[in-house]
Amino acid sequence: MFERDYARDGAIRYGIRAPKEYVCGMTLTIPFDNSYARLPNAFFARQSPVPVRAPKMIVFNDDLARLLRISPGDVQDMAQAFAGNSIPEGAEPIAQLYSGHQFGQYNPQLGDGRAVLLGETVGTDGMRRDIQLKGSGPTPFSRRGDGRAWLGPVLREYVVSEAMHALGIPTTRALAAAETGETVFREGPMPGAVLTRVATSHLRVGTFQVFAARGQLDSLKRLTDYAITRHYPEAEGPMGLLRSVRDAQASLIAQWMSVGFIHGVMNTDNCSIAGETIDYGPCAFMDTYHPNTVFSSIDQMGRYAYSNQPDIAVWNLAQLATSLIQQVDDKEAAVEEATEIVHAMPDMLQQNWLTRFRAKIGLTTAEDGDLELITGLLKRMAEGQADFTNTFRALGSDAARDQFLDPAAFDGWEESWRARLEREATPLDVTTAANPTFIPRNHRIEQMIQAAVKGDYALFHRLSAVLARPYDEQAGAADLKRPPAKNEVVHATFCGT
Ligand code: AMP
Ligand code: MG
After folding, report:
1. In b/e form, how buried is each residue of 366-397, taking b as 16+ CB within 10 angstroms?
2. What is the domain count for the chain?
3. Is the CB of 99 under 6 A from ligand 1?
């Protein structure tokens, strides 16, 4: 079967390999060990980041760098490397191929259109991770895009992904952000920036879909083996992989639900095989609780609304199942097994959800009526326009009832909750285990971006510091707990990359 050689195509179309003088022989060292670049050429296009005019470092994540065994260099070298002007030694930059369903429609070729994978490192914890530049210029997969990112989404992803990590939820991470000194045109002229993203891999449901849809079974098998080796060495064959991805996704989505996170674009190309939160675009944390909450400006039908996320995760897994089956000889048996695996996911999501929300109301044991107890609270929260984060955090104190338009509506629920707590030997402290007090509230993120565009990074640094300890009370940070005032409410969040 003919498989297109993107390495060659990329070089022909763009001719922007790094000239020798760009190679960093500098102070920054990254111990690369690149397994993906060793896969066949059909998996990616070799593509260097495209240099920018005036690189300037915004932030570098020292803790994460230590985990990755990276030794930082002087600030000039770092700016050059993390804006894409120099290639650190050992990097083998590539743009990865994938496809995916976007809002339910299959798009046969997506791929990294504004990102390059520099390579991988094996961290001090033994875990292999990708180091990727996002906003690093056009690639053979850019279609009509410019391959760039502007400062807003770069800082949003930096803050929100690191906050997610601090919340204990699997996610890609942010190693660095740099200004490019160039202008990017979106709604208007915007300052350009590059994010350095770290992921346990960038394998997506869409990475499997592209080979399955093209009937490139050798590549599909190779990818399946690669994914198993890298993420789930205990998994047996394609169906074993499907099971492991299901478990990871079912756990992840329940965790999103438990902190009021709305991803916003759960397309199959944004669904990680490793079960990490990936591709922070128009994502947001909910303030006032309502199950139908949507922030994304492009999600007109509410496909990716808060309460739809579990169903969408199942839908995405079904797409992975359909792709994986293609490589199995006994199709009938594979379809039967895959169906059983996918059909078990809703129940698993429900159980994980229950476990998370039981903890949020202080329960350590399970009783039959718990589901009704929790949904009873959520229903009152929706009617009473209660703040999701602050209500759970305040349970047990008067501050909880103050969250509701009609506090009496909460009192009725509280009575049944207290009766249930009586049957717990040692109820959890709701203010610590499962209920953060600091989340990256959307209006603060917007304020942070507006200030940064004017060159003021104070709120960016402050948010990063406070959100690193989301469960701890912190002096002088009460303003960051507050929901938005009426005039601060952000109604729509833009992809705006
Ligand atoms: P995402 O919104 O991250 O899920 O991206 C969807 C697809 O659009 C991916 O293939 C991206 O690489 C591509 N894309 C997004 N923004 C740009 C851009 N500015 N230039 C080129 N490709 C882009
Ligand atoms: Mg994406």
Report:
1. eeeebeebbeebbebbbebebbbbbbbbbbbe
2. 2
3. no
Helices (H) and strands (E) in the chain, counts: 16, 14
Classified as helix, coil or strand, 344 is coil
Is ligand 1 within 6 A of the CB of residue 110?
yes
92 CB-side CA count, 13 A: 15
Q: Does residue 489 lie in a domain region? A: no
Confirm whether 57 is domain-assigned: yes
What's the CA-to-centroid distance between 269 and ligand 2, angstroms? 6
How far apart, in whole angstroms, are the C-alpha atoms of residue 387 and residue 460? 23
Q: Is the CB of 497 within 6 Å of ligand 1?
A: yes
User: Are 174 and 212 found together in one domain?
Assistant: no
Domain assignment present for residue 494? The answer is: no
Atom of ligand 1 nearest to the CA of 110: 10
Active-site residue identified among 77, 130, 269, 287: 269
User: Torsion angle of alpha carbons 41, 44, 50, 56, nearest 10°?
Assistant: -130
Cα separation, 127 vs 150, in Å, equals 30
Average pLDDT for runs of 10 along the chain of length 497 = 43 40 68 98 98 98 98 93 97 98 96 98 98 98 96 98 98 98 96 98 98 98 98 98 98 98 98 98 96 91 96 98 98 98 98 97 96 98 98 94 95 96 88 89 97 98 98 97 93 68
**Nearest by Cα to 43 from 222, 178, 186, 168:** 222
Catalytic annotation on 146?
no
Structure tokens that stand for 398 in this block = 């008067």
In a domain, 441, yes or no: no
Q: Is the CB of 223 under 6 A from ligand 1?
A: no
